Each structure stands twice: as C-alpha cells, then as structure tokens.
Amino acid sequence: MAAMAAATQALGLSTSFASLSLQEPSKKLASLSSSASLGLRCNALKSCVAMGRRTVVASPVVRAVMAETAEALSPEMEERRTLEAWVKQQLPGGFAAARLNGTGRRKTAVARVVLVEGTGKIVINNRTAQDYLQGNPLWLQSVKYPLASLGYETKYDIIVRVEGGGLSAQAQAILLGVARALIVANAANRDPLKKQGLLTRDSRVVERKKYGLRKARKAPQYSKR
Predict the structure, then answer these.
(1) Which of 73, 109, 142, 188 is in Cβ range 3.0-4.6 Å of 173 for a Cys bridge?
(2) Which Gene Ontology terms cover its molecular function (predicted)?
C-alpha cells in the first residue's frame, strides 16, 4: 500500500486513488468525479506502466477501472448501446416474434433477418452495416440489393443477427435472408426476386481435405527416388 501511494504521488496522483484497490468494486467509479480527470488519471497509469512501476497497476481493481473507463469514453461503444436500445424497441418480442423475417445461409454463416417499416437503416449485430462490413462496397451492395431491385430502399429497415463464416459469406447470407423476408411481406415479390436468382441458396462449401493429400485435391510432390 505504501509503495502504491509513493508511486502515485510521484506521478502527481491523489492518495485516495491509490487506495482504490481497497474499495468495493461497485464504488470504484463513484470516487472518480469527472470523465476528464478520469482520462488524465488513466493516462498517468499508462505512463507509470511504461516506466516500469508495476506497483500501481498490480491491483485487479485498478485494471478494471482502466478498462471500464476506456469503454465509457469510447464513442463506438456509446453508438452500439444506442443501436442495441433501438433494436430492442423495434423488436420487443425478439427475432422469433417478428412477423417479417427470413433466414439466409451461405457456407457456415447463418443470418436471421427482420424487416420493419422505416427509412432504409441497416443494423447488423447492433452495429451499422457500414461499420460491421468494414465499408466494403461489394458487401454493402449485396445486403441492399434485394430491396433496391424492388425499389424498397427507403421503405424498410433491416435488422440482422448473423454468426459464423466470414464477412463475405455473412453478406451473402444476409442477402438471401432479406429476399426471403420480402416474400413474407408480399407474396407478389417472389417472381421478380426469383428471376434475378436472389432466392437460390448457394450450396457451395469448402471441399474436405482427403487422407494422403495436402488439401482437398492437392497431392504432395512426386519423387521418383
């Protein structure tokens, strides 16, 4: 405790912050008054680690404070919480209770899609499509294509929960899920979507590796002797 107090005083921190490790975890953030001072103290702690003074950050409570501070000050986390609250508001009964829903699959990716009346917003796993798909124009176009083909870009909001596979497979799974949800919304949408091949499930997957081969078909180099 004395070593921690000496280290914090050397950095210009208050002794009360050094005694933070002795407080209850539920009270650790209450003693830190403002986000500005919180950020300064975390920067000081990081500087202390860089100088090799590990006595200050040895306490797991202090590490928890630093982690929660970084999360609280992150604008990305704030936006994600806002989107999560919006999704819960739109789907009070969850994905299973939604009426306009569809499931799409591609490789090992599975996407559960729900359409709600809106303005064209797309939320994937409580994140914006631009953020989740890393701004890739091809993947973003794939997600929006079923709506764009019918002229519904600004008629529905898309809420997606997807897991498995990579981003490319997930984008194609979402495309199929959106197309199937549009059929639930209006059965007349089946013919135009089917003509464009948007209702066909792409069954191609990675071929399994074979015994005695390097990969699915690649054989080891032949050696005569």
Answers:
(1) 109
(2) RNA binding; structural constituent of ribosome
pTM of the model: 0.68
- Show the CA angle centred on residue 203, arms to residues 98 and 131, nearest 5°: 55
Please, what's the b/e burial string for 155-164 (b: 16 or more CB within 10 A of its CB; e: otherwise)?
ebbbbbbbee
Q: Give CA–CA dist 15/24, Å, rounded.
A: 17
Instruction: Tell me if 42 sits within 8 A of 66, measured CB to CB.
Output: yes
141-184 pLDDT tens trace: 999 999 999 999 999 999 999 999 999 999 999 999 999 999 99
**Would you say 119 and 157 are in contact if contact means Cβ atoms under 8 Å apart?**
yes
| N-to-C CA span, the chain | 71
Phi first, then psi: give them for residue 191, nearest 5 degrees. -60, -50
Could you give the angle at which helices 35-50 and 60-72 cross, rounded to 10 degrees?
A: 130
Which amino acid is located at 215 in the chain?
Answer: K
All domains in the chain, ordered by first residue: 76-196 (3.30.230.10)
